[in-house]
Model the fold of this input.
Amino acid sequence: DWTKGIQWKTTVPTVAGQSMVHASPDVLLAVVANITAGNFIVMGYSAITGTQLWNYTVNEYTLRAQYNFTPIQYDIYAWFDQNNLVWYGYNALTGQKIWGPTTPYSNAWGFYSESYMGTGINSPTIYNGVIYSTGYDGIHAISLLNGTQLWYFTVPSGHTTPYGDYPFYGGPTVAGGVVYAGVDEHSPDPTLYPGYNLYAINATTGAELWNLPIGYAPSATVADGVLVDYSNYDGNIYALAK
Done:
């Protein structure tokens, strides 16, 4: 509560170097990587007292251990195992695994995902108990409750890109039952590929509603019924009404 100032603080000397990942009214999720050992530790702290509630070690090396975690909803969070292209779900109150691993992605380009706040909202995100995750293979909708894939959206690119499909690098923005995602990538060439559009997708069914040639657009911002995004094709900012 910002109106009350600092309400508690706690010292955690045994896990120096940890990063705060996500927060809910009940739990603070933190991660620390051990590059030498090739693993990382996930920790849950009470959002009320700051006491560490649980911790566990993932015996797998990943370059950015603090990435690929979903926000916490219904006291559940999920993690995308980028190396093996599978998902796991955890109880945020206990740190216990409740589902996973899921069936691996069929397209290995799914390894590449914008999983940090670099080009707008991070991927993955959560909306009404559904994980929405973008990558170079497309957009995935996965149940937060049991890990079931609800739908998968991809746009074939033919020989326009090296990937065979258009890459969705920026995280998805979900509002009003619609997923907004722009085709984008990490390091585009000076001459931008054509067809890098902004897509609107039904959040429940995965059906495309429309797309616009607002190219190489990072994640859209939606507020007060208006979507705002930036196009790297022409350097303009676009505001779209309903």
The first strand starts at residue 19 and ends at 23. The CA atoms of residues 215 and 234 lie 8 Å apart.
